[in-house]
Amino acid sequence: MIDGDSVDERASGPVGALPRAWVQVRVTGPSMSPTVRPGDRLLVRRVPTGTAAPGEVVVARFPRRPELLVVKRVRHAVPEGHWVEGDNPFGSDDSRAFGPAVVVGRVVGRLWPRPGRLPAPPPPDLLAE
Which site in 6, 69, 95, 129 is 20 to 30 Å from 103, CA atoms measured? Predict the structure, then answer.
């Protein structure tokens, strides 16, 4: 299991892929509130690098901080990867701090405490800085 914002296995290369095709991730910070909250457990499927669409909730790594494994929402593609941001603009370390990210997995759903699909993204006015 991958736990929190750091991975317990060393990344291979500058930005490592997920260790298995399916992993469980435990959310540890408030950056994606209200969509996911600290303590939520998410089911994540590994994806080929560069395959993410705007609005998707993903697991990503920042080339500048490859030891971090973060859950964020894709805003748009950029030449170096994807611009990702948390749904909580007041408590998120994301592309605004670390630059473009490399998407390594797509969040399929929440396993615990409220199993099911994730809710739709918050309205754009709530995401504005």
Answer: 129
